[in-house]
Amino acid sequence: MAKPDRLIYLALGGAGEIGMNMYVYGYGPQDAERFIVVDCGVTFPNMDSSPGVDLIVPDPHWLQARADRIEAIFITHAHEDHVGAVGHLFPRLKAPVIYARRFTAAHAKLKMERAGQDTTLVHQVDAWPRTVEAGPFTVGFLPVSHSIPEASSLVIDTPAGRIVHSADFKIDATPIVGEPFQPELFREVGAKGVKALICDSTNVFVSHPGRSEASLSEALGAVMRETKGMVVATTFASNVARLKTLAEAGQAAGRSVLVLGRAMRQMLATARTAEVLDSFPPVLEPQDAADVARGKLLVLATGSQGERRAASAQLAAGSYQGIELKPGDLFLFSSKTIPGNEVEVARILNQLSERGIRAIDDTDGRYHVSGHPNRPDLVSMHGLIDPVTVIPNHGEHRHLTAHAELARELGRKGLVAANGAIVDVTDEARIVGHAETGRLYLDGSTMIGAMEGVVRDRLRMALRGHLAVSVIFDEEGRPMGGVWVEGLGLPDTRRYPDGLAAAVEAAIDQSLGRAKRSDLADDDAVERMVVQASNRICMDLVGKKPVVTVMISRLD
Amino acid sequence: MAKPDRLIYLALGGAGEIGMNMYVYGYGPQDAERFIVVDCGVTFPNMDSSPGVDLIVPDPHWLQARADRIEAIFITHAHEDHVGAVGHLFPRLKAPVIYARRFTAAHAKLKMERAGQDTTLVHQVDAWPRTVEAGPFTVGFLPVSHSIPEASSLVIDTPAGRIVHSADFKIDATPIVGEPFQPELFREVGAKGVKALICDSTNVFVSHPGRSEASLSEALGAVMRETKGMVVATTFASNVARLKTLAEAGQAAGRSVLVLGRAMRQMLATARTAEVLDSFPPVLEPQDAADVARGKLLVLATGSQGERRAASAQLAAGSYQGIELKPGDLFLFSSKTIPGNEVEVARILNQLSERGIRAIDDTDGRYHVSGHPNRPDLVSMHGLIDPVTVIPNHGEHRHLTAHAELARELGRKGLVAANGAIVDVTDEARIVGHAETGRLYLDGSTMIGAMEGVVRDRLRMALRGHLAVSVIFDEEGRPMGGVWVEGLGLPDTRRYPDGLAAAVEAAIDQSLGRAKRSDLADDDAVERMVVQASNRICMDLVGKKPVVTVMISRLD
Prior knowledge:
By secondary structure, chain A is of the alpha/beta class. Chain A is 31% helix and 26% strand. In chain A, strand 25 (421-424) and strand 26 (430-434) form a beta hairpin.
């Protein structure tokens, strides 16, 4: 008997974390479903768990094993956590086509180009009510307000019914860039009957209704007018709405706008090309800024999260591209500090404090609004779409849980489906299986598995230091001329005349000197002796057990 | 002509950071002042800047060079950032005596004992109006409310006048442990005329008056009564006030109290011995907890900052000492998440969410009050002491700046003196010099300078990986049998048949094969060639430049 068709949903990234969004919808008989992929984003490394790593992307191996069944990739909007991995993962997925609206498509093309992939696979599509067919799926890009132009929810129709994938959104009638939120459009889409709403959970713990981007103009205007010197404002490079709100507030106060930082300039250039940024004030070139009086200058700078090499950190530490802050200037964080980045942001605030420069951080909330739906906005969205089931995504596990509870409070089914949970939404939504998920690290120019041990070895060296030991055996199999030890990341000691490395050499020499001839002929045995002797003497002298690399050479 | 006597103040740690408090007061002719040291605290390492380090303490070398002029060390209270370094730094300072009140003295003795130092040097002193003489200084411990018993401000009298060193405090009439704040006492001390108030700045940005520890009882009581299952509450092990508030709320709801975590049990034991913890509810032994119904149990657990090995993280991940959380239980953070620890705390919240256990985090502020003075409390303290000058301490630079501004707004002199600034407070307070300050790392069993490069090498290996290269030259000075390369923390590559290490070996062999005989005879030249060849091939194959250790052996 043929298996019946089913409609499934699966998160490969983004459900149980904030970042690296990647979702899969499947339709067809079990194990023969056709797939569409929604978004393909990155997340960022940190020293605690991924030192040296450049970017983190979802491990797509579940999908890769079924790549011949992928109909298309859909990108909802141009933020890095949604589009950033499309170039890196494309070689593994080889989807026949990538669909996105114009501005998003421009970014997807850039990502493909940088990864050496075929940019012609990126197809630019129009917004709802236009739709595209992808196997059994008919997909429409429903314009929604967010903090970037052309953000879209997806309306996904299948023979088993309709799904709405909210993607990142806020409910904003005056979003400054992109389309205003149109409740009637969402109600219309919902009126046809929706099986499941897959919905942004980021701000489920925020109890007040979200504020409009336009509400910032007044407070920002006051700052621009009242500051005697230069105003430097930082926000996410990709928050195009904020860049425009800031630039317009500066312009209204008679300030010329200078943009510092590659990512921000790139984002504005793409927005201009895609014609989604009409009426953005003219932008100075850095060399022209010197001619502008400080009180007539607004600098928009990258690095709102305190990133060391970005414009903000450089300005706080001294200068950047000839621009230098002085007392009388103002540094404004028009951003939210993402958890984990507090220390880096505080470093900037303290450096500014040391130099006598006034700063406004993100604490009072007057100069930033979120691009995501708060709890009351979620209530509105659930009501407009009126789905049978709400499946929270775009959140840590606690966000998903709270969002599912909210759905249940509102009388609908709320289903927590973290990364890897395969949900059958054909009839009553339920988890029917589990796909292995994980993370890949872009490390220099290669991609490594998070669990491969490469990063674990880096962390071990960072915590314990490293000893390299070279042992040479002569033709008769006897250690020759003493071993050689080089330490790195280890304290020295005064408790041994020539320091730690010499002490380790002596300890190894002694250990090998006592060893049986048969053991000395065995590389594994020698390595064990070397590691044991090294650890023992290091614990004794400096209280640490370093990571040891043993290199045994035999002359014969 | 003899130099006139002067009274100076200097922070060696704690001014320009929150942590590792260590302050120096000096009186006498310039360069012949006699010194007292106030507090000797630690701060904690992190992966970003100090991987592998166990503890961070102030670099005392300025004081060490003048150790013969130290009269005494005074410890204001038993928090780690005030007493934690006394054992580690004592060998360098060799102060003749350490003064503290009874409970604090018990902790100082523990620290001295663990560091193998003479515990009899710790002298227990009574509170104000009793005072002790230390050279030209007369010092009294003025009881103040904080979150730990016997916290004290110091009244420091000198021939040049009086200083008040606030130390950590809050203004709390009902602090649960320790003495209530006594405004009349502070007014009395101030009435004699105070040259300078050195004052806690931690909460200068918090605009509402601080709340009393006692104000928590109601909300905590409700949680204890309404939760069906077990309640686990975490806070700082050293927040003795909170431990008591929690335990009493639990007891009132009919719950027995179990304490999990070494630091918390130690803190309570010391408090009992010092007789500062009367009426603390009886505490269960872990083995007896099994006999108590879940709804009748309150667990106090260490690890409020998400520390991986502490009780809270272990409970969230599975179980700890036989205690396991289940749905129906509640996990309560009765604490503030210190900036930088958000990700670790969120990990606990998410693990609990995955296991279906309800958690209350620190966001709504109903289950935690700070132990430090908010802005209105600072206004009160300035008013009570009415000093000529306020010198902010215990804060990052931005806190010091804002606190000094507040002092000026209130009509007094506010002087920012970050670590190392030598302030002459004899007449009008002003910065007259600069002492070099810094950090020492306790690393395993040794103490290393933060700038020595040990930790920098660990960070380099963590970011770039490591290659060990062994080259052997024969009696004629020719490379023998090919070099040997071992990589660690580096991705492998499929772009070379036998992987990255083999590719590096081939590249080095080729480079040495082309070298002149005279270069091969020169170890420095060989090392340069090896590093260059390694970097080039690694950049080419994996896009990274590893740290390279080269070991050259010559047979002769």
